[in-house]
Every structure is written in C-alpha cells, then in structure tokens.
Amino acid sequence: MTNQGRIDLNDLKIEAKPRRRSGGGWLVILLLVLLPGAFALGWFLNGSGAVLPGTATPVTVEVVRSARENSAHRGGFGEGGWVEVPSYHPLVISSLVPGRVEELLVLEGSRVEAGQVVARLYARDLTDAVRLKEAEVAEARATLALLTAGYRKEEVAKAAARVSRLQAEVSLAEKVAVRTADLVPAGAASAEELEEDRAALAVHRAELDAALEDRSRLAAGFRVEEVQKAKAGLDRATAGLDLAKSRLSYAEVTSPASGVVLERFVTPGSFVSAADPRVVALYDPNDLQVRVDVRQENAGRVRIGQHVEIATEAEPDRTYRGEVLRVEPLADLKKNTVQVKIRILEPGPGLHPEMICRVRFLEEESKEPGTPEKPVPTVPASAVVAVGSRTVVFLVKDGRAVRVEVRTGTENAGRVPIESGLAPGDRVIVSNPADLADGDRVTESRQ
Predict the structure, then answer these.
(1) For residue 394, what are the β-bridge partners?
(2) Staple 94 to which of 159, 160, 277, 323, CB 3.0 to 4.6 Å?
(3) Which residues contact 159 (CB under 8 A, 6 or more apart)?
(4) Buried b vs exposed e over 214-224: b needs ≥16 C-beta within 10 Å?
(5) Over the stretch 327-364, which tens digit does the pLDDT of each residue have?
(6) Close Cβ partners of 287 (under 8 Å, ≥ 6 residues apart)
(7) Digit-coded pLDDT (tens) for 126-155
(8) pTM for this one?
(9) DSSP state of 359
C-alpha cells in the first residue's frame, strides 16, 4: 500500500466544543456569604434591645394571688400552726353495755345528729333476758293478786259449817256431862264416867276454838305481812324487767349531740368491753381552734384577745379571723417556743383538724372581729400603667399582651391593691408594660 492510500487517524478526531460557564454557582456562593451576616445582624439587634417586626417581646409576669399582704401595713408578725379540736372535745360516744359490735353505721367525716344510731351490738342474749324478766313479773303479779283477793268463798263456807258442827257437839257434850254429874250421887253413874264425859267436853271445846279461829282467818284473808312481801316481790321483778329493757335499748349506741365523726375506735365484729367502751369520737366543725408555737422573740407581742388572721394552702383566696384564747404557761425548751391557742371566730367547711395553717398576729386592727374580709389581690407598682384617665395592666393570654382596665387602691410597700379587674390566676406583666401595645406578641417568664 502506498503512502497516498494511508488514512491518518488524527484526521478523523472530533474536536470538543468549548464549555460555557454558568452563572448559578455565583449565586450559591453569594447566599453562603450573606446568610451568616443576616443571622449576626439579627442577633446583634435582639441583644441590643431592638425588636424586629413580628418577633415576641420577652416579659416578666406574676401570677395574681389573694393579697394576704393587706394586713402587713397594720403591723404584726406571722407564725405557723395547725387546726385542732379544743381540749373539751372530741365528744367520745361509748357503749353503756359490753358486747360484740354487729353494725357500725358511720365513717370518719360523717355528719351525725343528736339521737342518731351510730352502732348496734349483738342483742340476742339481751332479748332473752327481757323475756325472762317479763315471766318473773307475771309470776309476782299473780302471787300478789292471790293474796290480795283472799281465800275462796267455798273454803270460808266449809269453815263456817265445821264451826256449826263443833258447836253442836260441844252443846251435846255439856248436856252429857251435866247428866252424869247428877247421876253420880245416886250411884247411877261412877266418878270415872263423869271424868270421861268432862274430858270429851274439853276436847270438843278445843276443836270448836280451832274451827272458830280458822273461820276468822279465812274470812279476814291473808296476813298483811304476806301481802306486803308479795308487793315487794312484784316491785323487784318489775325493776329487773326495766333494767333488762334498758340494757336491750343500749344495744343501739346513739349520739347524745350533733357533730362530725373524727375517729372510730371499733369495727364490726370487735368486742366493746367495760374497760374500753369507746365507739366513735365526734367534734363540732363550728368550734375549732389553732395551735401555734410562737418563737420566743415574738412571745412578748402576744396577748389574750389579740386578733389574728388565719390562712391555709387549701383556700388561698380566703382569710379566717380569730383571737388569742390563751397562752400556755410552759415554754418548749427544745423548740424555744411558747404554745398559743387561738379560737377561730367563724370556721368554714374548708377547715379540718390537723390542717397546717399560717397565722398572722395583728397589732393594729381596723375591723371588728368576726367581720368577713373579701380577699383583694395586689400587684407590683411596676405593673400598673396610667393611660389618660384610665388605669390598666397587661395580662398574658395565648402568647399576647392583653390590656385590662382596673380599679386600684393605695400603694403600700411597692404593691398596689387591685379592687376590681383581676382575678386569682391572672398572669400580669410586671416588666416595662408601658412599652407594650394591646395584642403584642410576648414570651413570659415568671418572677
């Protein structure tokens, strides 16, 4: 093959077209550079206090509670204590007879009225005792009736007939003895016959005397002593029956007074003995007191009759009023306290024995004891904003600031009483509320 017939492979190579560079990569690079700057700018603005449009404003809130501080301006001091039943209570209801408890009809906290049955004892043996005494009374009554009525008429008539017969026999014996005595001088009768006739007369006379006495006894009835003995026997049997009935009635244990069950000492099936007859204990919910261990540095500020305010966590919106009832003479060396008893003037259903409470001893009082006090919430003075002639506060609701018009009292110790417009549980903005507008988005933190 000649050189002219050869094919050069390089002549067959296809040249690639030059690539055109796209501008999309520059956009990506630009975004990567600008985004961190934007984030940095936002952080700087927020950190310096500026707020971007549409962002939430951080605020500090306080939850509204009942203002127990309303007594602080009157002086005094606070101590902890607990509710208790007075020493003359509780009223212990006991069984008057021993026996096994068949039914216990009340529980702790049950309301009991005077005369109400609280328990029943097993009463089969007591019922049998009543039946036995009833039989004894019937027997004694029959015996007395027999002695009072006397003997039967037939017996009296029989005794009278015997007396008549014996009288006739005595009359005949007298005649025989007289006739024999007339015959002895003539020798027609012997002295022995006369003695026999006279002896027979004496026997008939003795029998007549006995018959007369028997007739008189039957006609007069029984002796007075026998009747009195029968009456005494009936009285004894009647008293025994009354006692048995009383013991049977005691099988139902009743309450002598009204109250609330504080404690149960027995259960169904347990035995109530004479040594421990207790069944349940009651207390009067309208007669409660508070026991307070007052620190010795405050003991000198306590006086009998001093007014106090009592509050519990169970009722944060209510304050009870009381007065110092007595100060115990002995101090507690270990706790360095003096025990004080306080009478609650108007206890409510929310108070229970052994409930922890907070007691404030008042040194200046503006109200008479027993006057109910309506709780008034308070807020920091920083939360109150004057808008023209109106006074408002801002609440947090659903993440936004809500302006609420309120009626305020006199500021005291940096707090303002809110007489109307707020309720316990409201979340009040207390930091820079004047910078807010109604409906602004906020994020809250509680102080």
Answers:
(1) 403
(2) 277
(3) 211, 214, 215, 218, 219
(4) bbeebeeebee
(5) 999 998 899 999 999 999 999 889 999 999 999 998 75
(6) 86, 89, 347
(7) 999 999 999 999 999 988 887 777 666 667
(8) 0.48
(9) E
Query: Which residue's structure tokens are 């007739």?
Result: 215
Which token pair is 6?
């050869």
Torsion 283-286-287-292 (CA) sign: positive
Bridging pattern class, strands 259-264 and 390-397: unpaired
Class of residue 27 by CB neighbours under 10 A (exposed 0-12, middle 13-18, buried 19+):
exposed
119 neighbors 103 (Cβ within 8 angstroms): yes
Q: pLDDT, tens digit, for every residue of 365-404?
A: 444 544 445 557 888 889 999 988 899 999 999 989 999 9
User: What is residue 406's three-state secondary structure?
Assistant: coil
Contact 93, 118 (CB under 8 A): yes
CA distance 312 to 88: 24
Please answer whether residues 158 and 135 qualify as being in contact, where contact means their C-beta atoms are separated by less than 8 angstroms: no
Where does the pLDDT of residue 160 fall: very low under 50, low under 70, confident under 90, or very high at 90 and above? confident
Q: Which residues pair with 100 in a beta bridge?
A: 271
CA dist., res. 444 & res. 57, Å (int): 8
Give the tokens for residue 266: 């027995």
pLDDT computed for residue 8 by the predictor? 54
Residue of 387, 378, 381, 380 lying closest to 437 (CA atoms): 387
Question: Residue 99 region, left (φ>0) first, then alpha (ψ -120 to 50), else beta?
Answer: left
